Structure formats: structure tokens, C-alpha cells
Amino acid sequence: MSEEKPQVLVVEDEVNIRQFVRLALEAEGCAVIEAGRLADGLRRAGEGHVDLVVLDLGLPDGDGIEFIRSYRGWSEGAVLILSARVEERQKIDALDAGADDYLTKPFGVGELRARVRALLRRRSRQAGEASPVLGFGEIKVDLARRLVTRGGEEVHLTPIEFRLLTMMIAHPGQVLTQRKLLAEIWGPSYVESSHYLRVYVGHLRQKLEDDPAQPRHFLTETGIGYRFQPGP
Amino acid sequence: MHRLKSPVERLSPGQKMVLSALACVLVAIVAAPLREVLDLANMVMLFLLTVLVVAVSLGRNPAILASVLGVLLFDVFFVPPHFSLAVSNLQYLITFAVMLATALITGHLTATLKEQAAEAERRERRTHALYEIASKLAGALNEAQVREIVTPFVTAEFSGRCALWLAERDFSGDAAVEGFAPAIADLVMASGLRRVDHDAGHALYLPLKAPMRVRGVLLVQTPERLPEADLAFVEALASLVAIAVERLHYVEVAQRSEVDMATERLRSSILSALSHDLRTPLTVLIGLADSISLAAPELPAVAQDKLDELREQTRRLAGLVGNLLEMARLNAGSVTLRQEWQSLEEVVGSSLKLVGDALGRHRLRVELPRDLPLLRFDAVLIERVLCNLLENAAKYSPADGEIRISAQVAGDFVELSVSDQGPGFPEPLSGDLFDMFVRGNGESTTPGAGLGLAICRAIVDAHGGRLRVANHSTAGASVQVSLPRGEPPLIEPEGA
């Protein structure tokens, strides 16, 4: 762990929510800056180094998506969205605009801390060297040799399956929207062809999960996309 | 629009004949004193002139009468011997024949010309009338105005009665329109062909054939049978009315959808405001309950228990509010399905993960065939269905009971069942279970508001599927969701 505390900016108009989010973040060892409005939040983000922004989508003076668009113009810092579960569309737009993850209200402190931890960990790891061999469960992926083994035995993956796997494990704990995955792996003309994704994620689960119906690593974010969860 | 007729035109055919005869006699009387002065050839001219005048003013038949009468009068009064049909010189017979032929031909040609002129004039007038009514109909703002424009027009043109029957308004048996036979109107509507009702005088039923469909029936009742030319005219009138009615129909549709859209916007903005206002305090409650243990990690066991209970109840409340809002959204019709080709296995997986802790110690058995086809549905909503069914199953099953999820292809549907080993639904099974706020066992101490199945039903119905409940012969309830299979899009094989 670095000697310096990670800086987290919380942009949320509800004082009470801000309060307990601050408590949770401080318990994670973060230094917290608060903002109640979008404009205020952008100003605070610009003032100093920020590692993570926890952002409410419904702010009184504007849409949180505007914040992300503007923020992404000059910062690579992680963005975690807080949103009510009404509109999936809104979350997708926010994720496509560059947010890294989301939490649906109401959420527990445990969930919040887990997400924050994952996002901060990824930031610090990105700074270091990417390892050519990755592992989760009993799966080992050797990116350089394009080799996937399960409990020591080689698993055959088609090129597309392998591309999907590498893209997902490159973003551990992060939500990847359908759109992003389709555009990246199949090309921009496939962004509406979500059935490809269903079928290929299904293949990956068949080959790499113990129980494809109850996956532990290749998780579905229903209506939004997928999340790769490394874990044991 | 209605042209005044000249006095001559208003005469009956009989009167015209009498007038024609009088004209001939008058000419004979006037010319008689001159018979010593004028040559017979000029007398013939006088009679021919009479025939011409009669043909112009009175028409064809009076002209024929004048021709014959002229020849007779000429013979009796002017050809010697006078006052007798006898002829002194046989040459006069040729005169008579030529005179008759000339008179008949002249009369005929003149009458024909006149008729053609009259016909052209009539046509011109009709065209003008149609043009006028078309521009009036184009300005009509509602169906009442269409009636107000058409009815006086038909009365004036055909001195008949007219009634308008519009499919969308009057087909609930508007027999109040006098003289309208609904049976015939129905027939005309269905066939799109005009019909004459012989029982009710000259009643002509015309379909209002618009580009999209037959919009109604126009009834024209006339004192006399309509001639062929007029038939074409009323048909033209009917199609003008039809187009006007169809235009009004679409104007109305457009207005209605505009109002609907505005209502929809209002509804969903109220719902999302409500959703925000309800969720915010819940988020705060859950967050604060969680934070207490953060702030004071070493709580006495009793306090910790209370805290856990508080957290549990708040989560339950959040679930309930979620269900209520979902139901409100479904009922308000403000839910548009985001249907995509989805994998059932995937949604089962994500539902199991969402329900998570609520499944507790129940044993879970998932039996999904590997080769299930992709189905087209809104994953978020179907996930909600599965979560509700799983929560129900967990709620009613004994602690160590088994919850089973299975699926199979059945014809054009894929059936997904969630079964438990609880007490089952109360017999006899009834559709009430799907109603809002109805619970299987009203006295049950198991918490819940009876919204779950109602929401499931609404969602499954919206997908064109079926939701069925059943009790197992041994123990437990089973809920079956059938979703239509459709035709999944092809997946291009890899590396082709």
C-alpha cells in the first residue's frame, strides 16, 4: 500500500448519504472531499489529485453524465456511480461515457467498500507491470502464449472466446457494457447484436465455470453488461 | 348551386305536347288568310320554322308532333282542295314527304344539340358542385361538420334525403338515422359495394371507400330512381366524403397520441420523482445502520442483534418499495420492454445471485438443458420475475427444503419452473392469486404484500407468455413461466 491516503471525491446532494459514504470511505483508509452539486464537484476535482469519484447521477444542477464527460476530458481517475434502479439506460450511458462501476440505491456499506477497494486496487496495479500470467479459481491464463489451463489441463478456446476472455480479465471487477464488448471484439457494426455476446459468454462459462448457471467469475449485470470477478 | 329552371322546363311532357300542337295551329290560323298571297313553298317554310322553334324550346317529342301536325295542317288548309285531306295534284305527296322528312330531321338534330348543350351544362355544374363540396369538406374540422356540409348538398342536388353512417361512431346500431337499414349498411360496409334498397323507395347505400378502409355508408334517398349519370356523381361525392372522414380519423389519432405522450411523460416523471423520494431515505437508513458498526466496532451482542434486525427489516422494506414502484410502473403502462435475445441460463444465474442471502439454507437444484435457445425478452424484467418467484419459494419452503429451477422446450414456448417443498398454494387454485394484494393464505404470518405474483403476471403477459401455478402431488408449489420461442438470429460461425 502506498504511504499516501487515496483521495476520494463524493458528489451527492443528499447530506445523509454523503455522511455514511464518508464514514465507509474513511474506514477504507481514504481521504474524503465532499461536494453537493455538479459544478462544485467539477471544481473540487480540478483543484487537486483525485483517485476516485463517487458520483450520484441525479444532481440538482445537472445530470451526472455531464460530470463524467467533462471529467474524462482531463482525468483518468476512477468513477463509481450511485443511481436509483429505475432506468438501466441511464447507467449504461454513464458507463459508456467513462464511468467504471455503479451501485444501485439502496446499497449497503459492505458493497460500497468492496467496490471502492476494487477500483482503487486496479488503479494501483495499472501503475505497476501487467503480469503475462493471470489466474482465477483453478484457471490460469498465459496471455503471451495464449494458453488457458483449468486445473492443469489445457482448455481450448476459439479466437473470439480468447479475445473476450482477455478483455474481461483486463478489467477485473469492472462493469463492461454490452456495447463496449461488442464494439471491441466483433466491431462497431455489431453493437446491437447482443446475441453474439450471450452465446460467447455462455461458451466461456461452460468451459471455465464450475456451474455455468451460477457463475462465480463471469457475472451478468442484467440489462447492462458483464463483470469479471477474479477471486479464488 | 341549384339552378333555377325556366318556365318552359317546368312543364310536364303532356303540357309540352299541347303547347307544340297549339303552336302549329296558331301558325296555320295566322297563315291561312295569306294563302292567296304567299306561295305554297313559303307556307312549307313557315311550318318548318315552327318545328325548329318547337324543337329548340320544347324538345324532341313535341318537335315530332309538330312535324306530323304541320304536314297535316298544311295539307288541310293550304293544299287544294282546301279543308280536306285529299290532294288534287299527286306531286304534293312528294312535297309532304320531303316536308315531313325535313321537319323530322331538323327537329331531331336541334333537339339533340339542345340536349347535348343541356347535358354539358349540367356536367359543368356538377363538376363545379363537387369542387365546391370538396373544398368545403377539406375545411371540415369534425364529423358533425361533414354531415352539415353533405346533407343540404344532397337535398339540393337530388331533392332527396341523405344520411351519413360512420363506422367508428354509429355502428353500435344507430338506427336513429331515419330510414337507415343497419343490415344493409353492414353488408355495404363489409363488401365495399353500393346497394339499392328496393323496399324503401329509391334508397341508395354507398360505401365510403377511403384509401385505408371503408369508413362508413352514405345513404341517398331520392323520390325517383337516379339516372346513370347521377349515380357516378353520388359515387364521386361518396369518395370525397370518405377521404374527408379518413383525414379526420387520422387527425384524431395524431391528437390522441400526442395527449397520450404528454400523459405518459407526466406519469413517468411523477413515478421517477416518487421513486427517488422513497429510495433516498431507504438508502440513508441502510447506510446508517451499516455505519453504526463502523463507528463503534465493539457493540454489545444485544445491540448488534438489534442492529442486524434493523438492517434486515430495512432491506425488506426496500424490496417492498421496489415491488410497489415496479407495479405502479407496469400499471401506468410506462414500461417499454427492452427486448433482446437473451440466455435464460444467464438470467437464472443473475437472479440467484441477486436473491442470494434470501435463499438461506435452502437446497438449490438448477436443471437447465444445455441447448436452450436464446429467447427474446427484457432481461431486467424477467430477472425481476425470477427473483420474486425465488423469494416466494424461499419464504414458503421449510428451512431445509429444496428449491428447484428447471426449464424445457415445449412447442413454441420455453417453460421455466420454480418449485418448492412448502405447503403449496391453497386449493382450489384460482386466478385471484395473480391479483394485487391477494396472498395465498390471508392469515399467514409470512411477511409479504401479495404483489409478487401480480408483478410476475404483468411482466410475463407483456412478453406474450403465460404464468401458471400448480401444486405438486407430494408437496410444494410450482410456478411455471412460459415464454414464446421466436426465431433467434443466426450466429455467424467463427473464422469463416
Features of the shown structure:
heterodimer, A: 232 residues, alpha/beta, 5-stranded parallel sheet, 4-stranded antiparallel sheet, 24% strand, globular, B: 496 residues, alpha+beta, 5-stranded mixed sheet, 12 helices
Give your account of this protein's structure.
- The complex is a heterodimer of chains A (232) and B (496).
- Chain A is α/β, with parallel strands linked by helices and 232 residues long.
- Chain A contains eight helices and 14 strands.
- Chain A has helices at residues 15-27, 38-47, 64-72, 88-97, 109-127, 159-169, 178-185, 194-208; strands at 7-11, 31-35, 52-56, 58-59, 62-63, 78-84, 101-105, 133-136, 139-142, 147-150, 153-154, 175-177, 218-221, 225-228.
- In chain A, β4 (58-59) and β5 form a beta hairpin.
- In chain A, α3 (64-72) runs parallel beside α4.
- The longest helix of chain A has 19 residues, at 109-127.
- The radius of gyration of chain A is 18 Å and the shape is globular.
- Chain B has 496 residues and is of the alpha+beta class.
- Chain B has helices spanning 13-31, 40-58, 60-78, 91-138, 143-158, 167-170, 182-191, 228-295, 301-331, 344-355, 379-396, 452-462; strands at residues 161-166, 195-197, 202-209, 214-222, 340-342, 363-367, 375-377, 402-410, 413-419, 466-471, 477-484.
- In chain B, a hairpin with a 4-residue loop joins β2 (195-197) and β3.
- In chain B, α1 (13-31) packs antiparallel against α2 (40-58), α2 packs parallel to α4 and α3 runs antiparallel to α4.
- Chains A and B meet through α1, α5, α8 and β13 of A and α8, α9, β5, α10 and α11 of B.
